[in-house]
From TrEMBL:
The keyword Membrane applies. Residues 87-445 form the ABC transmembrane type-1 domain. The chain crosses the membrane at residues 31-53, 91-111, 123-144, 325-346, 367-388, 425-446. Its main location: membrane. This is ABC transporter permease subunit. It is a multi-pass membrane protein. The keyword Cell membrane applies.
Length: 454
């Protein structure tokens, strides 16, 4: 009773005591929160803040790190052709990859809504995200191999090509020197001696293995001994090689096979006046030729090497090829994020548009895309940030000879610093440049996220 009366008589000390108690409680809460956050802050400082500050400082020193050079590394960075190519390739990545991924993700997210097994389809497309970039790079390095026997893409390309345009059966065939055939600049072979109607000519070739002959090949001797009439020009194209040795060079022996499906031309005054294709025994004939001298020619198409596909990892296509591998990995990510935004769209708006007579394309273009604009922006900017840091795919997929043609800022930074350049000063400058390019996109994404939260 006495204490209560004292408190009523002196309220100020009591209020001060309450404030001190609350202040101590807040201080204890701050200390507790700091104790929980401190390990994360230490890791953040050790793994992010310290490396960033050290790289910035290191970028102002020479390769050895002993001499201060100021901004020379930054100036050298933009004088180096390899760095300029890396900047150009990075710009291509930033423009092409996020745009394609966002577009593909949007289209697939809209289409998946109409698929019965939508969950399984999403899982199938999202599965590449579980594959490391290193493993994906190895897979695509094999897929892009130029040898059709190894690279699945070139195997498909060669199959389609050969279905429409048959390949030469004799890419290794050639004529022996001094046996009546001379090679032209275009890879063709022509007779050194002129022939006329009524003649029978033998065109002997070597360099073809007997087991590589077409299965319908027949002995050429009967055709070679057949006499031509006065108004025709006959001949035979044969393999001038006898198994087990023996035989005479430049003459058709009894055991030598003809070369079927060879194209033969009759040339006069530099112009082709007639053409024929050899039969199973290698024979051919021309009828109705005018009197005079002719040259028999085997066009270069007979000896063209087989089509081996596209050089996916050559200097011209290596960057698009690597971007294709990147699309395979990240399309599922874009589709899932955009699909989540699509699921949150007000369905009554879409149904109202359908009731007003809008078709699906109009709904997609005028309603779905505008309503999804915030989600599309977040996906696009996130992919831009990720693309700027791409390293694994470029380093693994691009072969050594074209590494410089495919290089981006991240790989160039590594190559300059540790991949043989051993210039950590210039490499640090490249790292700072990459940081300056990434930070604005990160800030934009964070602000966009905060606005959407509010």
């Amino acid at each position: 009773m006495t204490t209560t009366l004292i408190e009523k008589a002196n309220p100020a000390p009591v209020a001060q005591a309450d404030q001190d108690r609350k202040r101590r409680a807040r201080r204890r809460a701050r200390v507790g929160a700091l104790a929980f956050v401190l390990p994360a802050l230490l890791l953040l400082g050790a793994l992010v803040v310290y490396p960033v500050l050290f790289s910035i400082g290191r970028s102002f020193f020479d390769a050895s790190g002993d001499r201060f050079v100021g901004g020379d590394n930054y100036a050298e960075m933009f004088r180096d052709p390899a760095t300029l190519k890396a900047v150009r390739n990075t710009a291509i990545w930033v423009v092409v990859a996020p745009t394609l991924l966002t577009g593909l993700g949007l289209v697939l997210a809209v289409l998946v809504e109409k698929v019965r097994w939508a969950t399984a389809f999403k899982l199938l497309l999202f599965m590449p995200m579980a594959v490391s970039f290193l493993a994906a790079g190895i897979v695509f390095r094999l897929a892009y191999d130029e040898d059709p026997e190894k690279g699945v893409l070139n195997a498909a390309v060669v199959s389609v090509h050969d279905a429409f345009k048959s390949a030469s059966s004799y890419p290794t065939a050639r004529a022996r020197e001094g046996q009546g055939l001379t090679k032209g600049a275009d890879g063709s072979y022509g007779t050194t001696a002129a022939v006329s109607p009524g003649d029978t000519v033998g065109l002997g070739l070597v360099g073809v293995r007997a087991e590589d002959l077409p299965p319908d090949a027949r002995p050429a001797y009967p055709a070679a001994t057949r006499k031509a009439s006065a108004d025709e020009l006959r001949g035979v194209v044969y393999l001038d090689f006898t198994r087990g040795g023996g035989g005479r060079q430049g003459e058709v022996d009894r055991d030598e096979n003809g070369l079927p499906q060879m194209s033969v031309e009759a040339v006069r005054d530099g112009k082709t006046v007639a053409s024929a294709t050899t039969a199973a025994d290698g024979s051919f004939r021309f009828q109705g030729l005018d009197e005079g001298s002719y040259t028999m020619r085997l066009p270069g198409s007979n000896f063209a090497p087989p089509y081996e596909g596209i050089s996916w990892l050559g200097p011209a296509l290596v960057t698009p090829a690597i971007i294709g591998a990147y699309l395979w990995i990240w399309t599922g990510f874009a589709m899932v994020l955009i699909g989540a935004g699509l699921a949150a769209l007000p369905r009554d708006t879409l149904e109202a548009a359908r009731m007003d007579g809008a078709n699906e394309w109009q709904i997609f273009r005028r309603i779905t895309v505008p309503l999804l604009a915030p989600v599309l922006t977040v996906v696009f900017v996130t992919l831009v940030i990720n693309v700027m840091k791409v390293f694994d795919l470029v380093y693994v997929i691009a072969p050594g000879p074209v590494q410089e043609d495919a290089t981006v800022l991240a790989t160039q930074m590594w190559l300059v610093s540790f991949g043989g350049g051993n210039n950590q000063g210039l490499g640090s400058a490249l790292g700072v440049l990459l940081l300056l390019l990434v930070v604005p996109a990160m800030v934009f994404n964070v602000r966009r996220f905060r606005r959407s939260q509010r």
